[in-house]
Design brief:
Layout lengths: L8 H9 L8 H10 L6 E4 L5 E5 L8 E7 L4 E7 L4 E7 L10 E7 L2 E9 L9 H5 L7 E4 L6 H4 L5 E4 L4 E3 L2 E4 L2 H17 L7 E7 L7 H10 L3 E9 L19 E6 L7 H14 L3 E5 L7 H5 L6 E9 L7 E4 H16 L2
Parallel strand pairs: 3-12, 3-13, 13-16, 14-15
Antiparallel strand pairs: 1-2, 2-12, 4-5, 4-9, 5-8, 6-7, 6-9, 7-8, 10-11, 11-17, 14-16
Helix pairs in contact: 1-5, 5-9
């Protein structure tokens, strides 16, 4: 394989730092719309808020190849505001409460964003009992303090979205950020099409930037039903548990070993022929890869597989350490490999 093209890190940073939880993906959608100008023949927003993008193929009755890239990140929605101005939230997406202590957050309102801090209710360490110190609070016990007191209720509404407030950084050969799950896929959906240049394939290429994946593949289900693809490619992050404290058989991927060719999770089993096609192509192009399986969890490829009369489906994933935290970490080699295999595959269509 020739040297991989440089990575557009500035785009990934912008995607990750833009707030967008399930049902509130509008800012991410607007950013993507600016970035994809000229890449597709048709772009439409569906009723749920997913972006459905199509580059027309040149063949008669062209095959429909669909890339599914969800826009949403895990976050919260405001559920209650006390008279004193403390905000309670409900999660949209899966959080481990152990990762929520002493976090800075951004509350996104109709009239602008407000910065605050999130902590569980209860005594600080100086006056906590031994039993208090052992307790891991539930997500419902965490509160947000904007420092505004009673005025909070005048500025924040029930349903406003809340995201973690952490910067995107580069360390060594890695990138670290909140929301790499799944702005990685949005980045790949854009950059793979850019890498095609003006090439017209026989097949129709559909890229769906979907909503509400983190709460049940909801946007992907409606998008796939509308497109009725022949081939669905779910693009996502996956676990990279190549870290202390995790048995080798549970690590899923190793960072720096290439993209993940996703064979199975609890939402789907990949089409064997497609797995073989991607594996053979990666070997021919000398693109590093590793086969992956997950015991639990799912991704948008399952929605494409099960839409209408069904489709052949596979997953292309990027191993991510410390997933569903503000320190999600991805190796640049794996990110480049995922982009390169998607581009190489689309060129064959």
């Amino acid at each position: 394989m020739t040297d991989s093209a440089p990575l557009n890190i500035d785009l990934l940073k912008s995607l990750c730092e833009t707030p967008g939880v399930p049902g509130n993906e509008g800012r991410v959608r607007d950013l993507i719309l600016r970035e994809i100008d000229g890449l597709f023949d048709e772009v439409e927003e569906d009723a749920m808020g997913s972006l459905l993008c199509r580059r027309a193929g040149t063949g008669e009755n062209p095959l429909k190849v669909m890339l599914l890239c969800h826009m949403d990140e895990i976050g919260f929605m405001v559920s209650h505001i006390t008279e004193q101005g403390y905000i309670y939230v409900q999660p949209v997406g899966g959080f481990d409460p152990r990762n929520l202590f002493s976090r800075r957050v951004r509350v996104c309102t109709e009239n602008g964003d407000l910065l605050g801090v999130m902590n569980p209710g209860g005594r600080p360490v100086h006056i906590a009992s031994p039993e208090d110190r052992k307790k891991i609070p539930e997500v419902s016990e965490f509160v947000i303090d904007l420092g505004l007191g009673e005025a909070t209720a005048d500025k924040v509404e029930i349903g406003d979205m809340v995201v973690m407030e952490e910067p995107f950084i580069e360390i060594g050969e890695k990138v670290v950020s909140k929301a790499l799950d799944n702005r990685i896929a949005c980045w790949l959906g854009i950059e793979a099409l850019r890498a095609l240049g003006d090439l017209r394939t026989d097949a129709d290429i559909h890229v769906a930037f979907t909503c509400q994946e983190e709460v049940g593949l909801r946007g992907a289900r409606t998008a796939a039903f509308a497109i009725k693809p022949d081939i669905g490619i779910g693009i996502d992050t996956t676990l990279a548990c190549d870290t202390p404290g995790v048995p080798e058989q549970d690590r899923t991927t190793q960072q720096g070993k290439g993209f993940g060719l996703h064979v199975r999770d609890s939402s789907f089993i990949a089409d064997k022929g497609l797995v073989d096609t991607f594996a053979n192509l990666a070997e021919a192009e000398e693109i590093p890869f590793q086969r992956t399986m997950l015991r639990a969890g799912g991704q948008d490829g399952a929605a494409a597989q099960q839409a209408a009369a069904g489709a052949r489906a596979v997953g292309i994933v990027v191993g991510t350490r410390y997933i569903h935290t503000v320190t999600e970490m991805v190796h640049k080699t794996d990110l480049a490999a995922a982009r390169d295999i998607l581009t190489a595959y689309l060129r064959t269509m």
